[in-house]
Amino acid sequence: MQKPPTSSTPPGSSLRKTRPRRAAHDVTTRVERTLLAIRGFGPWSINYLVLRALSFADYVPLGDTGVTSGLQALLKLEPRPDLDTACQLMTVFSPYRSLATAQLWQFNQTFSK
Question: Which residue from 41, 68, 70, 63 is spatially nearest to 53, judged by alpha carbons?
Fold first, then answer.
């Protein structure tokens, strides 16, 4: 069984070893390392930046409470999924996990009102 991606590895990048995916992974890793060196940038901020600014279609900001809360509400889970469980649950949305992330954020807001 393949181990779940870490925050420095875009989800799905290890699943298909194609050149474009490898290049995207290299860019992401470089961006992450550069930004982590700047005070004030943490893993969540970097994940969000990669998702929004670099527009990767298959990326999940790992550790985002909006994602885990959205999964909990959508799938009627109790308790809220941890990081590993959320990572596994998000695999069904590949190769469009960024879009799924945005939908989970909206789904979660719908139920919090």
Answer: 41
pLDDT in tens, 27-85: 777 878 898 899 998 888 888 888 888 777 888 888 899 999 999 999 999 999 999 99
Q: Which whole-number Å values give the CA distances from 14 to 74, 87, 106, in the listed order?
A: 27, 13, 28
Backbone angle region of 82, left / alpha / beta, with phi > 0 → left and psi within -120 to 50 → alpha: beta
Q: Phi, psi (5° rounding) for residue 67?
A: -70, -50
Do the beta carbons of residue 51 and residue 32 sit within 8 Å?
no
> Residue written as tokens 């509400």?
73
